[in-house]
């Protein structure tokens, strides 16, 4: 069967959570050690991570979890039209121009000026269209994939696709499904035998959160959300040699704002705040991410404890008992603790062909919303949920 239309799975006008998977063309190791040539392209994983971090600073979309593998990418996204609605037209304009600066004769002219921002902000029809795109998961994924393709093709001196066709999307419809999916994503390198535990699996959200807990800081890849004064831009172009402008632009790309941040500061916080209302947008004021809203009723401590325990259960014969406190946490969310290991490690058996993730009851409800009787995987997953 063909994949469903995006509009059937999610809309940019409503908040929803989506697990997206983007694979390299022919599943080649274009971000790892190439099996044919033996070349190591693992450094491209950092390209992808930094691009995601940059996009998280301008789009109305929260990055909840991610894992960058040698031949594919997993990311869990939550679109935030409520956050985008709070931005002024000028804010929408500068954010859009940072990602899509338009046609430029030279790369060093890609800095948006105050005049360009004001002109775009004054076009009400265009701003309305852009505002919708800023909370659109498909536009986020497009903005992530295309630049990586261009950079890789330029490096390899070739043309053609880097990624397969459109990304695979699974709508996550309840917290039980979200917790299981987040664990599945964070443990991808462990499942692929690329790492022995989450602490040794870089380019995952779990690794970033663990490192941040140890005080690790990195150069921020967030876009600078300040427009260049028009007169200053014109003066630089007139008086500064082109080569010097290119060097400055290249240096600014490494750290556009000059900030050093916690390694996980661009990711959505893991734990939902009990003091905040569910309708509170919780806007981020640091220019690093769309919002400060968490996504699970689980503390970061308990999440990492459960993640480490689950990572050790890779061997089918593993029999280490799940700590009682963690089993209670799973039961409260609606997951059968005795099936937890199976749910995460055998994820593809339950949800590999499904376009929806969650408990059977939540999946059934979402199917009815879409005019369907049920989703693939709904019956199989019933054994894992209470």
Automatic annotation (TrEMBL):
InterPro entries documented for this protein: Transposase_17 (IPR002686), Transposase_17_sf (IPR036515)
Gene3D superfamilies named in the record: Transposase IS200-like
Segments forming domain Transposase IS200-like: 13-188
Domain of life where this protein originates: Bacteria
Record's protein name: Transposase IS200-like domain-containing protein
